[in-house]
Structures are given as C-alpha cells and as structure tokens.
Amino acid sequence: MPLDIPPDTTTTGEEFFRTEGTYSGLGAPIPDRRIDRWILSEGPHIESYVELFDELCWRLLGVDLPLWRAALYAGTLHPLIRGIGARWLRDLRVVEDFRILHGSGATDEYLRSPIRATIERGTPFRRRLDAEIPEYPLLEKLRKAGAPICSTPISGRRPGGAFSPGRSAKVRANVSARWSW
Predict the structure, then answer these.
(1) 3-class SS of residue 103
(2) How far apart are CA 51 and CA 85, in angstroms?
C-alpha cells in the first residue's frame, strides 16, 4: 500500500544525498558458511564500515544469497547529517560511501521510496518487479536494470526468479540484524 504523498510540496533528493567516495570491492563471492563467526572474530578488526559491509555482501553471495545490490544505513546525532551509509553494487564491484543530510524526509525521492514503509512503519517491503511500478520510481529503475524483486531490508537477483519463500525466511532470520557503529 503506497504511503500518502503531499502534492506539490516535494523536492528532488539530490541536494540531500552526498557520495563521499566510491571504492573497489573485493569482487568475488567468499564461500564461508560461518558468517556469524567471521563477524564476531574478524569484523571488529576491520576499521572501515565500508570494507566490512563489502566483505559481508560477498560472503552472503558466497553462501548463495542472490544479492544484486544492498545498502547499509545508520542514523546519526549530527546537526547536519541525518545518517551515513554504504551502497554495495555487485555488477560494478564497488561500494559507495554516502551521507544523507537533514531535510531528506521531505523529498520526492524519499516520499516515493519503498524503504519509507520500512523506516516509518517498521514493516518489510517486498515487490516483484515484473511490471511497471509508477508509484515507486526507484523500483522502476531497478526493474529496467534487470532486478526481478525488491525486498527491504535486502534486495536480490538470481536467474529465473527471486527469493523463494524458504530463502526469504532465512534472510529475515539471519540478515535483518540492526547495525550500529
């Protein structure tokens, strides 16, 4: 169910989204089923959350979780910056480090975003991308790029379809942890 959007009161999100850097990712799946052990033993020694997130995504891909793109976000108490994050893009093999500035919640990009329902209602969002979705411009971009499904807090792509019901349950159980640094 789409959220209400106030007419003619929104702006684009570009002025509130700032890319701090783009980094080369590891570039290959890491087949190690003990992701929890890796996070607890090696994770604290990785100095950059961007590097940690990149390796986490490649490890998830290495255990057959069909990630295509993923984002990590953490809110801040900064007077100008609403939050920090990283966006992982498998096909490009890069991770973007970004900042979201205060005021972004009133932008058209946010108000028409599928993540809004997750942030404001605390409910997962899942949508097949097999038809046009004019109410969510981001999903339309993802659909045109070849993604068959969008699911928050994670989106995935695999040949012939998206997450199976069993895989979705596994993702919700094992990957939906909240991160804070």
Answers:
(1) coil
(2) 12
d(C-alpha 46, C-alpha 57), whole Å: 14
160-175 pLDDT per residue, tens: 334 455 555 554 444 4
Per-residue b/e over 92-118, b at no fewer than 16 CB within 10 Å?
eeebbbbbbeeebeebebbbbbbbbbe
Residues 99-103: contacts with CB under 8 Å, at least 24 apart = 99/17, 99/18, 99/20, 100/16, 100/17, 100/18, 100/73, 101/15, 101/16, 101/17, 101/18, 102/16, 103/16
DSSP, residue by residue, 106-171: GBHHHHT-THHHHHHH---EEEE-SS--TT-HHHHHHHHHT--EEEES-EE-BTTBS--HHHHHHH
Token pair for 33: 């089923």
Global pTM reads: 0.70
Q: Is residue 71 within 8 Å of 86, Cβ to Cβ?
A: yes
- 68, 90 in Cβ contact below 8 A? yes
Q: Collapsing DSSP states into helix, strand and coil, what is residue 36?
A: helix
Name residue 81's beta-bridge partners.
101
